[in-house]
Design goal:
Number of helices: 14
Order of helices and strands: EHEHHHHEHHEHHEHHHHH
Radius of gyration: 18 Å
Strand content: 5-15%
Low-confidence stretches: 155-159
Oligomer: single chain
Shape: globular
Mean pLDDT: 94
Distance between the termini: 42 Å
Largest sheet: 5 strands, parallel
Strand order of the largest sheet: 2-3-1-4-5
Number of strands: 5
Length: 290
């Protein structure tokens, strides 16, 4: 309960499959996107839900599964009622309830919203001072092109489908670096998602050893099967997602070969634009060569 693992990354950075892999370790429990720390209180979080209902789906599925033992429509309806009853409590308290329901297994959580929500990292650190943090990377072109593709599918294109790399990728990672300055070095880890997916067994072993949990063959084998998570599928009609839809439709781990990184060509969604110098410099620090 006191040592959850928070995965910090912008959207479209392999967070769904990586959380599913790590969270399938027998001593861990991977959650969908709860977005809990985007607000101080449940009342504030429910205001976010009213503005964008899809941001509630992961939390409702987690409450239904862990608190009620299932994810049927009636379970999600009960989760909605339960969350309304917690209106005056802190979001950290709800996360603690999820941890209690998970029993001895430590929670693993990833919500890209936490990277952009003011003070979200501070809330995590204050509520769980012994938490661990995985800073998950993906090269900027792949991140932004995936966001562009996803946004077009949701809103049918237009300006909402054209991400600003400086805002989406650069500011997200600079914010994560800043937020982790107060976290002891032994409780934070930075990994490139491309490397992790290319050699998953080796990286899962490294992560297990870093977390101080079983790194034997059986435990690592479980981590290579994210499709076994209760959240690695589409949910009921009243909470259908809570994770990346492409992952939910096909959650099994597949062979992955990293592609050459191209940081110099024009942006695919606007050939008059290029990555800024700040993006290029941080990408190089992360090991993505120009």
């Amino acid at each position: 309960m006191h040592k959850p693992l928070f995965i910090l990354a912008p959207p479209r950075s392999f967070t769904s499959i990586v959380c599913g892999m790590i969270g399938n370790h027998p001593e861990l429990y991977g959650l969908p996107e709860t977005n809990l720390f985007a607000a101080d209180s449940v009342a504030g979080l429910r205001r976010i839900h009213r503005a964008q209902r899809r941001f509630s789906f992961g939390l409702l599925r987690a409450i239904a599964e862990l608190g009620l033992g299932g994810q049927k429509e009636e379970d999600v309806d009960s989760a909605v009622d339960w969350l309304a009853e917690q209106n005056d409590t802190s979001t950290a308290s709800v996360f603690a309830d999820l941890a209690e329901w998970a029993g001895p297994r430590r929670l693993v959580e990833k919500s890209p919203m936490h990277v952009y929500a003011p003070a979200a990292a501070e809330r995590m650190q204050l509520a769980f001072p012994e938490a661990y943090y995985l800073h998950l990377l993906r090269e900027p072109r792949g991140t932004c092109e995936s966001i562009h593709k996803s946004a077009q599918a949701i809103v049918g294109g237009g300006r909402h489908g054209n991400p600003d790399p400086d805002r989406v990728w650069l500011k997200a990672h600079l914010g994560i670096i800043d937020a982790l300055q107060e976290v002891p070095a032994d409780r934070q880890l930075t990994l490139r998602g491309e490397d992790l997916l290319h050699a998953p067994a080796a990286h899962m072993t490294h992560i297990a050893e870093w977390l101080g949990i079983d790194s034997g063959d059986d435990a690592i084998d479980e981590m290579l099967h994210p499709e076994r998570s209760p959240f690695a599928c589409m949910g009921p009609d009243n909470a259908p997602t809570g994770n990346d839809v492409e992952f939910l439709k096909n959650p099994a781990l597949r062979p992955y070969t990293p592609k050459p990184v191209d940081l110099q060509s024009p942006l695919s969604w606007d050939d008059s634009l290029h990555f800024s110098q700040d993006v290029l410099e941080l990408a190089e620090i992360f090991g993505y060569r120009k």
